[in-house]
Structure formats: C-alpha cells, structure tokens
Amino acid sequence: MTFLAIIITSRKEEPLLSRTMLKAELEFDSATPSNSEVTQLLAAHLKVDGKLIAIRHIYTHFGSRKADIIAYSYPDENKKNFAEPKKKGKKEKEPKQEAKK
Asked: Which CATH number fits domain 3-83: 3.30.70.330, 3.30.429.10, 3.40.50.620, 3.20.20.80?
C-alpha cells in the first residue's frame, strides 16, 4: 500500500481523558487502507508508538482516493485502555446437539 500524503488538519487536546483528538486527510493509491495501516502511518508521522494510537473512523470520499480520519493519541497505554471501548471477541460456536426423538 502506498500512501501519497497525510495531512493533520486539526488537533484538539482533551485533558479530562488525557488524549489528543486528531483529524487528518489521507490520499492513497489503491483500496482504502485498513485501521492497522493507518495506525502505523499516523504513528510514524507523529513519532509515537503505534500502541498509543486509536483509530475511530475512516471516511472515504466517493469516486476519489481520499479519506478523512478521526483518531486519538494517548500518552501511555494505561490511559488508552481506560478510555477506549473494549472490543468484543468472537464467541466459539458450540457443537449443535442432536434433537431427541
């Protein structure tokens, strides 16, 4: 995946949750980048660890290779774990029990 440009359009400090809200614009060549790719790109751009970045939304523009990104940057991993919603894991399927006749 090659990215042409990333531009951070706004930065807003949120001191109560100890985080910074970032809004950015991303130009890309092929398919819409995944959350992990955008996380790595933002981490490299901000010069922080990728574990401290949380991507909330990637909004693509129809018919163009641009996307608007909303992300949060945290000072440490404990603050991120406290403020970010927990991801639900996949449940293991139980084997179906045969119907008794």
From this structure: 3.30.70.330
